[in-house]
Backbone:
């Protein structure tokens, strides 16, 4: 399913948490699902308008420039239907770092190892953030907690795998550079 099509379900899902303004929705996405779902914030308002036109979201003015969006029963039914469908294949994986590692033999000695080291350091920092997020969610009493923890723990597993790969690759590249 195209990212544009899945945006609607990200919005519907977020609105199950509570009614939100467009800005509140943007902030909630960044704070909750942002660790695994990157949404174009420019798509949020057109998506909200489309969902309202379809009767999946109801909108109420809060003031001259602010509107609150609330999921309807029909919107909940549509979200439930979508949740039961198989996910589309993930977007094509493209990693500039892996491309550089693949061709590292042609780089200056140590250049690509430095990139892998920086990548590892970024992952270590991400691991620390995930650990904090995991503790925060574990303390939350929401009935959604087990599901939220599952997504954070997926992120932790991916980051841990990336750190392990980085360490192994650094050993390999260091061995190659010393020859």
Residues:
């Amino acid at each position: 399913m195209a990212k544009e099509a899945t945006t609607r379900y990200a919005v519907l899902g977020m609105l199950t948490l509570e009614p939100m303004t467009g800005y509140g929705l943007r902030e909630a996405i960044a704070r909750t699902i942002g660790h695994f779902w990157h949404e174009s914030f420019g798509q949020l308002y057109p998506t909200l308008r489309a969902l309202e036109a379809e009767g999946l979201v109801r909108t109420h003015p809060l003031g001259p420039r602010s509107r609150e969006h609330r999921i309807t029963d029909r919107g909940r039914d549509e979200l439930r239907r979508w949740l039961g469908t198989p996910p589309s294949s993930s977007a094509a994986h493209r990693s500039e770092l892996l491309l550089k590692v693949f061709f590292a033999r042609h780089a200056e000695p140590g250049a690509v190892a430095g990139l892998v080291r920086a990548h590892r350091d970024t992952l270590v920092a991400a691991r620390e953030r995930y650990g904090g997020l995991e503790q925060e969610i574990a303390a939350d009493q929401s009935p959604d907690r087990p599901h939220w923890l599952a997504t954070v723990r997926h992120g932790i597993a991916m980051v841990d795998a990336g750190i392990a790969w980085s360490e192994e690759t650094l050993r390999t590249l260091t061995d190659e550079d010393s020859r």
The longest strand covers residues 57-61. Residues 96-177 form one domain. The CA atoms of residues 121 and 163 lie 8 Å apart.
